[in-house]
């Protein structure tokens, strides 16, 4: 099966477009993750570095500077980012 989902972003909310899009994306994905499901994401080391640099620019604290977790609870299941140690070039 293949599903297409559309979201609308409240661009005048004062939040960054990246945060709005990320929150909307995870909200939609959460609907599909049930108990014992694992959502695999394709974030790689370059994405991790970008996330860290953006957090540093915003003046984030230790939690924000830790960037993306390789494993986390998500919806009723879990989320894994198995490529965080692999660069875009390696992929």
Compact summary:
This protein is of the alpha+beta class and 91 residues long. The protein has helices at residues 17-30, 45-58, 62-65, and strands at 38-40, 71-74, 77-80. A hairpin with a 2-residue loop joins β2 and β3.
Radius of gyration based on Cα positions: 15 Å
Low-confidence stretches: none
Report the portion of residues in β strands: 5-15%
Total helices: the number is 3
Look at the structure and give the mean pLDDT. 93
What is the approximate shape? globular
Strand order of the largest sheet: 1-3-2
Alpha-carbon distance between the termini? 26 Å
**Largest sheet properties:** 3 strands, mixed
Helix amount: 25-40%
Which secondary-structure class do the elements indicate?
alpha+beta
Number of strands: 3
Order of helices and strands: HEHHEE
């Amino acid at each position: 099966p293949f599903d297409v989902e559309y979201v609308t972003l409240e661009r005048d909310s004062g939040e960054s477009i990246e945060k709005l899009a990320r929150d909307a994306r995870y909200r939609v994905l959460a609907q599909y993750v049930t108990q014992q499901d694992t959502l695999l994401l394709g974030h790689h080391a370059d994405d991790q570095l970008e996330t860290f640099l953006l957090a540093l620019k915003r003046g984030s604290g230790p939690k924000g500077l830790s960037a993306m977790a390789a494993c986390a609870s998500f919806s009723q299941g879990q989320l894994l980012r198995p490529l965080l140690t692999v660069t875009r070039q390696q992929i």
